[in-house]
Amino acid sequence: MPSPRVSLITAVYNPPADAFEDTIASVLAQSYDDWEWILSDDKSPESWVLPRLRELAARDRRVRIVERPENGGIVAASNSSLAEATGELVALLDHDDVLEPNALAKMVDAYDRFDDLDYAYSDQDLMSDAGELRDAYYKPDWSPERLRHHNYCTHFSVFRRSVVEEAGGFREGFDGSQDHDLVLRVSERARRIVHVPGVLYHWRQVPGSAAADNQAKPYAWDAGVRAVQAHLDRVGIRATATRGVSPGLYRVEREPDLETPVSVIIPTIGTSAIVWGEKRAMVVETVRSVVATSKHRDLEFVIVYDTPTPAPVLEALRAIEGADIKLVEFTEKFSFSAKCNVGAAHARGDVLVFLNDDMEAYSEGVIENLIAPLREPDVGMTGPKLLFEDLRIQHAGLVYGSGTITHAYYRARPEERGNHGELHINRETSALTGACVAMRREVFFDAGGFSERLPVNYNDVDLCLKVRRSLGLRLVWLHDVVLFHFESVSRDNAVHDWEKDFVNNRWGNYKHVREGYSNNVR
User: Fold this and answer.
1) Which end of the chain has fewer surrounding CB within 10 Å, N or C?
2) Which of 269, 100, 73 is nearest to 173 (CA)?
């Protein structure tokens, strides 16, 4: 008999009886029927469990059970099921959760689309004890930086079995975060990873489960920290993993980059304004704040100033202690893009940081922490969290798609955490604001710099899409690199329809173009 295409694997230990029956019904109702289901009973003490499993196997030849002689925990039981799997694909299903009827069909379709696909994950929601559905989680496309901070993939996960076996299956010592550890290890060798859009998995909230209470399994949080740290060590990222702001979230602190030559490029016309009740020359205080909070050892500031810039502002810039200032006069009609491109042409740094003149560094080590991820060759650009004067969010990543270009969490309050902690984790994003963005010199020039056909607005979005689409590099938003942005103090904030049309005509409806699938990860 030929092997089935998909092996569903489930570790079983004292599941709630009614919930388990829902799980069974959801598997048997799958529209795609080329599967096997391997359930490993981890020595459940409830007397009904093993007889029910035996009955299920007797009624459907696609169901097989493993009767473990002793209780070994979730990792041991999951490996018992994995060892019996014969399918090309392995799908993970918990013993109290529910699949949509088309779950396997949708996942198999993804594998049929891509011969080199090694891992696919879907969207999910929560199911109450009474069967009510809520809190649908529509996930981003493949986001490795986010995964280091949060196991956002979770459910529904389907792997190529050979890759899971090469990665070593589930590992002892990671109980409670064994899926996160597995996904991290699979991601390191996967040829392609895709997000299959649509809620295919209902994560049951039962008393004592992580779905119902993220405090229920504190050991899982520590196991997750170990999983992330082991991953960082394997892939050569110089960073330390620790607990994040709540269970299931992690913090990754990279070793600051103090040595790579950096040029901070600031376009200005020398505007002064009132900030926090005091008048300031904006560009002067921007530079002073960066110098005061940075320990970087090779840092220059390339100030591209319009001819009308007041002479006292230029003199104040030259007088800033500890600042290597290069002044470049710009005599043409105002164009933010052209001024940035001119600054890049005059810069000597291996990394370029484009910075508005109406900023103030808030966190320590803005420069060295902002550029640290650029050591990783697949990171094309980084950007920080930007705050308004009142501490509300100005920038937490740009969203591009469905004909819209918007700031995520615009004006969110300081105490807000965002969906699944998004305001407190590093993550990939559609685009980054040009108010503060860092990139390697070669990436900037390979992408063609800022388009001078967009002199004022959306030139940053266009550059980001060139880096993502044309160069295939990641854009990473960093939650713990923070600056104030006194937005539009120094310029008109009007956005014109032709600017939106230019970007949409050039790049199209981004989400539609990608159909929810990620690029090849290699």
Assistant:
1) N
2) 73
Q: Are residues 192 and 86 in the same domain?
A: yes
In terms of residue numbers, what domain contains 410?
262-488+495-507
Tokens of 189: 């060798």
Whether 231 is covered by a domain: the verdict is no
Residue 32: which of 115, 156, 154 has the closest Cα? 156
Element at 359 (helix H, strand E): strand 359-361
My answer on whether omega of the bond before 301 falls inside 30° of 0, hence cis, is: no
Among residues 215, 250, 280, the one where a domain terminates is 215
Amino acid type, 498: W
Strand partners, 7: 36, 90
Q: What angle do CA 486, 489, 490 make, to 5 degrees?
A: 125
The domain boundary, picked from 215, 247, 279, lies at 215
What backbone torsions phi and psi does residue 439 show, to the nearest 5 degrees?
Answer: -160, 155
DSSP 307: T
The answer to whether the peptide bond before residue 445 is cis (omega within 30 degrees of 0) is: no
Q: What is the pLDDT of residues 401-459, one digit of tens each?
A: 766 788 899 999 988 999 999 999 999 999 999 999 999 999 999 999 999 999 988 89
pLDDT digits (tens, 9 = 90+) for 155-190: 999 999 999 999 999 999 999 999 999 999 999 999
